[in-house]
Design brief:
4-stranded parallel β-sheet, alpha/beta, Rossmann fold, 97 residues, 39% helix, 3 helices
């Protein structure tokens, strides 16, 4: 079963690469580059925020969602695929079985 992950921010041109990196670690990635969270946000096991490429309101909405649903949240400094892969690998390694 894949682990659902919400990626906030990043580079829209890299969405397919982000999804591929996530899939290689058993994660199903939903990427929201800009705008707002949907009125009914998806159920996810992890939220990843690319802090350098994300609006303040969207970043704050992600933090509220994480707090309300007790979802782990990870902040990345860069929008690189390797940074996402590393963060996901660390989270998957520490996730309860």
């Amino acid at each position: 079963m894949s682990r659902p992950v919400l990626l906030i921010g990043g580079n829209g041109g890299r969405s397919a690469l982000y999804r591929g990196a996530a899939a290689s670690l058993g994660c199903d990635l939903l990427h929201i580059e800009k705008g707002t969270l949907p009125p009914t946000p998806p159920r996810v096991a992890l939220i990843v925020v690319v802090a350098s490429v994300c609006s303040h309101p969207l970043r704050e909405a992600a933090a509220r969602l994480a707090e309300l649903r007790s979802i782990p949240i990870v902040y990345l400094r860069t929008a690189s695929v390797s940074a996402l892969r590393k963060a996901l690998a660390e989270e998957v390694a520490h996730a309860p079985a």
